[in-house]
Design a protein that fits this description.
Helices cover about 50% and strands about 10% of the residues. By secondary structure, the protein is mostly helical.
Length: about 400
């Protein structure tokens, strides 16, 4: 679509000194507008409002010639770049500026460098989103960002990368963030936001948790493998069980340092700042689940050093080990680290029956986040009763 040019007189409705006001060139393209000064000031009598031009034929021709310059620049720019946006007029107004319009891919890369303040997990998610976008299309122009682009990107993630619905939804949220940033920086008209009509979809996931007897099987495992594999499996198992007994997220287990643990008269106490919520938490390791988390930590604890307790155990590595551990323990579940936090929630509610205690220990802001553990325990109890008693006929 070509730019539509119109001469506008006294746009701000404020006649300047001596009753004169500025004539501007309005450039309209796909819902966006820009105004450029002609440096010509006229009185109301000198302006022909019906023809939207100057009554003086000489000045009228000068205005037409100026508009023609804009039109000619647009034609030449499109021929070189195969695209055009209102922001490209900056190259016309400033000829010394190199005519290399930035693409959305380039914008994403540059903006990502400014996001160093973000948490590591969030930053990794955004970096992965950029990688997936480049895999899908090496260089993405702003004009490419439409509803069809989002559809095709989702098909690419689902069919070629074999990703699930909720993972795809995460990539969409990161992409949407950078599109909104481009809009704020006037690189894309707000009317062109492809997410105005594109709806994100997310599936509810089943909560995976271990029953006490399943947890005991993992705890009692002896690993018969090479020393290196044995050490990895053992640390992955201990890290997972520690989270089962404390409710810590992976990010908090991963970042936990020896200096976060202090000795008291009763035993070890963990003080930490949650990576996700930035809330301060306290865990009496000597008290929880008969001191089992303290027993685990004592295997790795090395005083007040700044070294991580579970050093070298990335999320990917731990989850890979957990698949082996589940098989060795003969647990027919696809085990992953998140199951540890859900195991803690259900186990604590089974023992206490106190939903508020569970909510506080898991640092849940909303009560609804804790409700799922209440429902799970009720379901377990109901299934247990069904095995003992027969329903009345």
């Amino acid at each position: 679509m070509k730019v539509q040019y119109t001469l506008v007189f006294n746009r701000k409705k404020d006649l300047a000194a001596k009753g004169k006001s500025l004539v501007q060139i309005q450039a309209y393209l796909e819902g966006g507008r820009r105004y450029f000064s002609t440096k010509l000031y006229l009185t109301q009598k000198e302006w022909d409002s019906k023809k939207a031009t100057c009554k003086d034929p000489y000045l009228a021709k000068a205005l037409r010639d100026r508009v023609s310059e804009f039109e000619q620049f647009e034609v030449e720019f499109r021929a070189l770049n195969k695209r055009f946006s209102l922001s490209d007029f900056d190259f016309f107004l400033n000829p010394s500026k190199k005519q290399v319009p930035i693409s959305f891919t380039q914008f994403f890369k540059k903006q990502l460098q400014k996001e160093s303040h973000l948490k590591k997990g969030t930053l990794v998610n955004q970096e992965n989103t950029l990688k997936k976008l480049i895999e899908f299309q090496h260089n993405i122009a702003f004009e490419d960002l439409d509803y069809c682009f989002l559809q095709d990107f989702e098909i690419f993630l689902r069919n070629e990368k074999k990703l699930k619905t909720n993972t795809i939804e995460k990539y969409h949220r990161q992409l949407r963030k950078y599109i909104n940033l481009a809009i704020k920086q006037d690189l894309l008209p707000i009317e062109k936001n492809p997410y105005r009509l594109f709806k994100l979809s997310k599936e509810e996931t089943d909560t995976l948790f271990l029953l006490p007897e399943e947890r005991d099987k993992i705890e009692q495992l002896n690993f018969d493998s090479t020393p290196e594999e044995k050490d990895q499996l053992e640390m992955a198992r201990d890290m997972f069980l520690f989270a089962c007994y404390t409710g810590l997220r992976f990010s908090d287990c991963y970042n936990m340092k020896n200096s976060s643990i202090s000795k008291t008269n009763q035993g070890l106490l963990l003080k930490y700042k949650a990576q996700k919520t930035e809330k301060i938490g306290y865990k009496p390791l000597y008290l929880l689940f008969d001191g089992k988390p303290q027993k685990i930590i004592l295997k790795y604890y090395s005083g007040s050093s700044e070294k991580r307790v579970f050093k070298g155990m990335t999320n990917t590595k731990v989850n890979k080990c957990l698949k082996v551990i589940a098989k060795l323990a003969r647990i027919p579940k696809k085990l992953y680290f998140k199951a540890s936090r859900d195991t803690f929630g259900t186990s604590l509610y089974m023992l206490s029956g106190d939903d508020k205690l569970v909510q506080k220990q898991l640092q849940h802001t909303k009560r609804e986040q804790t409700d799922k553990y209440v429902h799970l325990v009720e379901q377990i109890q109901h299934e247990g009763l069904q095995k003992i008693f027969k329903p009345c006929q």
